[in-house]
Write a structure and sequence with these properties.
Radius of gyration: 20 Å
CATH class: Alpha Beta
Strand order of the largest sheet: 4-3-2-1-5-6-7
Structural class: alpha/beta
Distance between the termini: 32 Å
Number of helices: 9
Largest sheet: 7 strands, parallel
Low-confidence stretches: none
Mean pLDDT: 91
CATH architecture: 3-Layer(aba) Sandwich
Shape: globular
CATH topology: Rossmann fold
């Protein structure tokens, strides 16, 4: 902080040189996560990112549903990407591993350490949520979102925002299990739309389905008139994520 800044803002804390150095060097750690992610995931296309709660027990119907969906997608030729942890993430990786296509886990290091599941062909570890979230989006041909908590809602809001604002290409966004999502969707329709903070047409950005076969069919239907590879224009958008 120079003398002029000190005079204008005397309440600003002085810069800790050691902390500034540590912050500056952290950029290389972030770069390393992006480089490894790009190098390891560039070959997995087409892929589908699957989200859901880490707290779902293995004997829950949502676990079985996620496993069945992932197996169907894997057999249909899609690599399956999950967060690499337990619950729905484990079910997605387990189903994918039982299928014909790669099973990928994008694990995150948390204060209460996330334990990676045992069903990953490719396993990446991230320190930063934001770099991990880029990897979920960059190579995804579709998003499949099962019941989950704040983390799941964060990923759902992320992709809806990116598609709504044109920052990424339009891909299928599928919410699975209508009984779970109906309250949230009612709030969208009864509060967000009347308040003018989203448009009625934004409800067309996603669809709600219940059966594994419906999920696979919806993704293929979206790509009937085009290939899975992004167009040149879409590729430029993905470069700017």
């Amino acid at each position: 902080m120079d003398e002029q800044e000190k005079a204008r803002h005397p309440s600003l804390a002085p810069i800790n040189d050691a902390m500034l150095t540590r912050e500056s060097w952290k950029i290389f750690q972030i770069m390393a996560e992006f480089v490894e992610g790009f190098e390891r995931l560039a070959q997995i296309k087409p892929s589908v990112s699957i989200f859901g709660s880490a707290r779902t027990p293995t004997d829950h119907e949502d676990y079985a549903l996620a496993e069945e969906i992932a197996k169907a997608l894997s057999d249909a030729g899609f690599s399956v990407v999950s967060g690499g942890g337990p619950g729905i993430m484990e079910a997605a990786n387990k189903g994918a591993l039982a299928g014909k296509s790669p099973s990928i886990g994008l694990n995150i290091q948390l204060p209460n350490e996330q334990t990676g599941n045992d069903y990953q062909d490719i396993s990446l570890r991230f320190r930063h949520f934001f770099s991990r979230k880029v990897m979920f989006v960059k190579y995804a041909s579709a998003y499949v979102v099962l019941p989950g908590g704040f983390g799941t809602l964060d990923e759902l809001a992320e992709i809806l925002t990116l598609v709504q604002t044109g920052r990424t290409r339009r891909i299928p966004i599928i919410l699975v299990k209508s009984s779970f999502w109906e309250g949230l969707l009612s709030w969208f329709e009864q509060t967000l739309i009347p308040s003018g903070v989203i448009s009625a047409t934004d409800m067309d950005l996603f669809e709600v389905l219940d059966q594994p076969g419906e999920v696979v069919d919806a993704i293929f239907r979206h790509y009937e008139q085009r290939g899975f590879e992004p167009s040149a224009e879409e590729q430029e958008r993905l470069m700017e994520l």
